[in-house]
């Protein structure tokens, strides 16, 4: 599968390496793709770098690992090339960073994932990977025993199935929580956020 990563920081680069090891093609996005040479080399032969627009057009699945405040402009600019595609949204809405967006999301009442889905109505958004710190992703992938749980929420059943597979490919336990409004249950500050809980622990905490 061709996976575009928009937001090639610690989270995006960690997942990019894991997905490349699982056999996927990965393209990292940047305004200056030439600065990603080292990351591409580290990721392996199936990795490339491109502009944000190029990556959005090329990819079958797009992972967003950017500050939440960047999403309005990105959604506006990329709506066309992202139409019909699975979007993995790992953004966290942090009040002291994202300001007025906090109120906008609360008004919608569907969690941060629901807000992103509203901005990209022709895409299938699945909230994913926002609850796990990148260091835990890097150190805990494919571990023995109960794996780290990654909650997922989305409206499209086929998109959720793809997202579930990508969580497994990265080495974690996908926890299906419901439609996109369920993303509110594992947003920033909730009881399962940034806890490094296993899949069974996340299910118990969320009553699943």
Q: Please compute the radius of gyration using only Cα atoms.
A: 16 Å
The fold-level CATH name is Rossmann fold
The portion of residues forming beta strands comes to 15-25%
Spatial sequence of strands, sheet with the most strands: 3-2-1-4-5-6-7-8
CATH architecture: 3-Layer(aba) Sandwich
The low-confidence runs, each spanning 5 or more residues with pLDDT under 50, are none
Can you identify the CATH superfamily?
NAD(P)-binding Rossmann-like Domain
How many structural domains?
1
Kindly state the number of beta strands.
8
Oligomer: single chain
Overall spatial form? globular
How would you classify the helix and strand content by structural class? Answer: alpha/beta
> N- to C-terminal separation?
30 Å
Q: Roughly what is the average pLDDT, rounded to an integer?
A: 95
Descriptive notes:
There is one protein chain. The chain has 208 residues and is an alpha/beta fold. The protein has one domain (2-206): NAD(P)-binding Rossmann-like Domain (Rossmann fold), CATH 3.40.50. It is 42% helix and 18% strand. It is built from ten helices and eight strands. The chain has helices at residues 10-21, 37-43, 52-58, 71-82, 95-98, 101-108, 111-119, 134-140, 157-170, 199-206, and strands at residues 2-6, 25-29, 47-50, 61-64, 86-89, 124-127, 149-154, 173-178. An eight-stranded mixed beta sheet has the order 3-2-1-4-5-6-7-8, with helices on both faces. Strand 4 (61-64), helix 4 (71-82) and strand 5 (86-89) form a beta-alpha-beta unit. Helix 1 packs parallel to helix 8 and helix 6 crosses helix 7. It is globular. The mean pLDDT is 95.
């Amino acid at each position: 599968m061709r996976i575009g990563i928009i937001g090639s920081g610690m989270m995006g680069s960690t997942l990019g390496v894991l997905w490349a090891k699982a056999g996927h093609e990965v393209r990292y996005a940047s305004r200056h793709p030439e600065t990603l040479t080292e990351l591409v080399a580290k990721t392996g032969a199936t990795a490339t770098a491109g502009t944000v627009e190029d990556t959005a057009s090329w990819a079958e699945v797009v992972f967003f690992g950017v500050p939440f405040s960047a999403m309005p402009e990105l959604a506006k600019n990329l709506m066309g090339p992202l139409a019909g595609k699975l979007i993995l949204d790992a953004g966290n809405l942090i009040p002291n960073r994202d300001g007025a967006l906090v109120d906008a999301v609360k008004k919608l009442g569907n969690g941060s994932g629901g807000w992103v889905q509203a901005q990209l109505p022709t895409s299938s958004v699945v909230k994913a990977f926002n609850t796990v710190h990148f260091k835990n992703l890097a150190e805990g992938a494919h571990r023995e025993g109960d794996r780290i749980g990654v909650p997922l929420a989305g409206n499209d059943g086929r998109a959720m199935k793809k997202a579930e597979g990508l969580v497994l490919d990265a080495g974690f336990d996908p926890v299906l929580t419901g439609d996109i409004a369920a993303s509110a249950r594992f947003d920033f500050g909730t009881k399962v956020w940034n806890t490094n809980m296993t899949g069974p622990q996340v299910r118990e905490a969320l009553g699943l």
